[in-house]
Design a protein that fits this description.
The chain is α/β, with parallel strands linked by helices and 583 residues long. The chain is 64% helix and 10% strand. Bound molecules: adenosine-5'-diphosphate.
Length: 583
Amino acid sequence: MVTVKEMLGLSEKGYRDFKRAVLAAAITNLSLLLPFVVIVQTIITLLNPLLYGGTLDTTRLWLLFALGLAGMALYFLAYRHEYRKTYTAAYKESESIRLEVAEHIRRLPLSFFNNKDLTELTANIMADCTSVEHVMSHVAPGLFAGIITDVCICVLLAFYDWRMALALFVALPLALALIVGSRKVQSSFGERHAAAKLAASDQMQEYLEGIKVVKAFGLSGEKSKALKDALRRMMKESITFEGITSFFIVLSMMILQVGLGLVVFAGVSLLTGGSLGLIPFLTFTVISAKIYSPLIIVFTLLPEFFYFLVSTKRMMKIRREPVMDGDVCPALERYDIELEHVSFAYNREDVIKNLSLSIPQGTVTALTGPSGSGKSTLSRLIARFWDVREGAIRIGGVDIRTIAPDALMRYMSIVFQDVTLFNDTVMNNIRIGRTGAGDEEAYAAANAARCDEFIRRLPQGYETVIGENGSTLSGGERQRISIARAILKNAPIVLLDEATASLDPENEALIQEALSALVKNRTVIVIAHRLRTVLGADKIAVLDKGVLIEEGSGEKLSARDGLFAHLYRIQQESLGWTAGTHG
Ligand code: ADP
């Protein structure tokens, strides 16, 4: 049995606040009924002298008037209390859920994101957080409070006259069964609606991202047609979904209101039969007109609640994904890397097969091999983006699975091909290497990475804001900024993915100089695409289909008639240096 706390994915504090919000809303509901009790009592007081003779009890009327005023005051206070409890608490809780989910996602292994569409994931998380916020503030407290209020009223009325209460509520189980029973149908339309919404936002994103290409190739007709179609589908699904939900709500409400007729019918028969007094009869007829409002709230909120449970469930699933754990303060003393019988698969098939390799501290090891042979995968395993399926990777003798990924990252600088730059100043982009580094250190790193000159030529120098992902910079410049970052980080291990994109000779030379500054005295693993450039490495490891097939110095491997010599020959002949393009 899932508890409400689990169902809504609340924290301890969130759950406590939630219970208070429900209580506050229930008190508000009940305080709303007080005026009706006063009205009924006033009618009775007024009718009493007419029906049974005697004088009008004015004292009682004044008392009732005072009670009515007190009721209004109580309602005002209860509502104010409910508002605070519900909304303030809901937004606070939703903030902490968002933070927690973001933090959790950060600690998830990358395998979680593999095979997942990131747009979908982001859209879901954003939408789910909003849904949870909405459920917590506008749906769940009202729903639960409505149920409590209804039960209280049922019990009170049953004590007053059980036959009339029965007539009033006899249709309730039927109406409730209809709403709950139709949940599957509603959910399936709900899911279709959600899918259409997602497809539309996907299309919108694609359209905006590709706007340049769209304009350049005059595709506006076709592309906007796809967007229009997606939006139209979303509109249709929204209407169908609303229609279906409303159909069930209205139908169940109609069934429920049958109770109103039954009360009058049963009341009149009991009254004429003499077993019911006029006063209880009047009480029931007046109250039954009002009694349905908390019920109607429950009936309207219930389908909405079911719809949002999909969101909370999805969110709970993410929050339950196991994170990558490990020692947060490892004390690594050496930085030699040992791969021992490592096997790894992204999906089913192993892409690294029983691979053993030792990378001594302070040396440069080049990974080479045809495209798709597993070079990038191997470097990602060393950085613990993924955990090995079998075998172990040790740094300085410590299995990296015992080190928290964040902590491991402190020992590594990673320079990948797809450089990520942020829409911020050049200075801040370099400082990502080590936040807290002083300006002088950043200048020195930029200088070593041969960035200084081009940065100083930018309009505001180091304070120039570069566009999203550095769109205002050239490929070579972006690469050098990423090298400056790595130099600033000053980590003992460097993972390097050599660029495949052909750069102009000048940029090429500058990058080589920048890299020489970076790799000095460090343990370096370089994914090499141009074999010529790796001949100087201390060790070359040649991979083929995930298997280490050759290992040794460039000299040794060139002399042997193996894969390396073969690939090297091809590259020399084609002069394109591109045989090992990155897969
Ligand atoms: P290389 O860097 O040598 O070109 P990779 O390590 O990128 O090779 O790829 C090795 C194999 O793993 C290839 O068959 C590739 O298709 C597969 N692969 C790479 N990345 C992923 C991924 N994220 N999910 C599934 N398969 C992948």
